[in-house]
Specification:
6-stranded mixed β-sheet, binds uracil, alpha/beta, Uracil-DNA Glycosylase, subunit E, binds iron/sulfur cluster
């Protein structure tokens, strides 16, 4: 890491009240500590941006029209979608939720049992942790935050979505992203990361550096459901969230400077 980014990180840590030592000072930090986010030494070195993968158009027969849909048409299309086998056992489709002009887009894998029941992403245990992760960086579901998944229907037994299912569903997320125009995408977990980046890699190798989805900056972190089991990686997730805040501040100030 160069001196400039070290300085920026120092500044960020000061602003969010965890420098020089990590301590409780305000609500977000209280959440961070309660969630077991603890300090570790420095962020992973940032590597050059990974070139954007070529994205194939969805296998969905409606793909052509999806690319031009407005929100109501897109929502209606997903609600009726039968483009992959996941439609067979779903209870509700889970379109995505939040601010349709959000700066932040968080992308998970696919609905679980609770989400399939309620039709909203991240409402179960993993969702509670995601809400706390958002709170730790002073964000809130629905306020400049949009939450979506790679697939809109629950994979039976919470198995990973198959590549053909993710491909069938990808035009919807792609259109959501075009409509939202987020400044930053945070991929939650490996399934989200590899589908958005179009290449296979581990979370460990992808986190800590900036990638892109169709020109939009993208960062990768652990999936909250994984963090519920792997407590020791919460510290890394906290680093990732700090990097996300730092990246967003940079993107927002670059935009202000350009006005
Ligand atoms: N896990 C996900 O990836 N998405 C959800 O919506 C819920 C749990
Ligand atoms: Fe359609 Fe996506 Fe559901 Fe498959 S997962 S049926 S592509 S909405």
């Amino acid at each position: 890491m160069n001196d400039g980014s070290n300085a920026r990180r120092e500044q960020l840590l000061k602003e969010i009240g965890i420098s020089p030592v990590w301590r409780l000072r305000d609500a977000p930090q209280a959440v961070a500590e309660a969630e077991g986010f603890v300090p570790t030494a420095g962020l992973a070195a940032r590597e050059p941006e990974v070139p954007m993968a070529a994205h194939t158009v969805s296998a969905n027969g409606d793909a052509g029209s999806v690319t031009a849909m407005d929100w109501p048409a897109l929502k209606a299309c997903v609600a009726d979608c039968t483009a992959c086998v996941l439609h067979q056992k779903r209870n509700k489709t889970v379109f995505g939720v939040g601010d349709e002009n959000a700066d932040w887009l968080f992308v998970g894998e696919g609905p679980g049992a609770d989400e399939d029941e309620q039709g909203e992403p991240f409402v179960g245990q993993a969702g509670k942790l995601l809400d706390n992760m958002l709170a730790a960086i002073a964000l809130e579901r629905g306020k400049s935050v949009y939450i979506a998944n790679i697939v809109k229907c629950r994979p039976p037994g919470n198995r990973n979505p198959q590549p053909e299912e993710a491909a069938a569903c990808s035009a919807y997320l792609q259109r959501q992203i075009e409509l939202i125009q987020p400044k930053l995408i945070v991929a939650l977990g490996k399934v989200a990361a590899i589908n958005l980046l179009g290449r296979d890699a581990s979370i460990a190798s992808l986190r800590g550096q900036q990638h892109a989805y169709r020109g939009i900056p993208l960062l990768v972190t652990y999936h909250p459901a994984y963090l519920l089991r792997a407590l020791t990686d919460k510290a890394k997730a906290w680093e990732d969230l700090c990097l996300a805040v730092e990246t967003m501040q940079r993107l927002q100030s670059a935009e202000t400077a350009a006005i």
